[in-house]
């Protein structure tokens, strides 16, 4: 949190410390997903440029690592989409691994992991109600009967669960 505050105050030394601490990790994170050294290097550099350019809006309540990985993920998706478009217009589309389906798969897998972790961290009743509704397809009335609560209480738990997921996903997407 101190790193974030210092970076927000234009402290280049703090920025360089964060860069030194996370450069290899971000590079490995991207390389593992894309299997491309070029993309990994490009995305890593663009991620740190984005960190510096967006320093004023960093969230001091979230760890710098969480924000960096979120930025890296978003930059990676942007770079892969640009590469896919470039290859498509140059007539090399069939030869490139950077297709929309790869981007979509990475995006979906990352989002599902984030959502699943968020669901596991919910209060027990909220998690149970949400999973019964969304994963098992039970109606509000069926869930209410199972737990001896009202259908309105079921709606409340599901609403709170969705709000929690939406808020966290929004913060990750920044």
TrEMBL record:
Domain (RNA polymerase sigma-70 region): residue spans on this chain: 19-84
Residues annotated as domain RNA polymerase sigma factor 70 region 4 type: 119-165
Keyword Transcription regulation listed: yes
Keyword check for Transcription: yes
One GO BP: DNA-templated transcription initiation
SUPFAM superfamilies in UniProt: Sigma2 domain of RNA polymerase sigma factors, Sigma3 and sigma4 domains of RNA polymerase sigma factors
GO MF: DNA binding; sigma factor activity
Protein family per UniProt: Belongs to the sigma-70 factor family. ECF subfamily.
Protein name: Sigma-70 family RNA polymerase sigma factor
Organism: Sphingobacterium phlebotomi
Lineage: Bacteria, Pseudomonadati, Bacteroidota, Sphingobacteriia, Sphingobacteriales
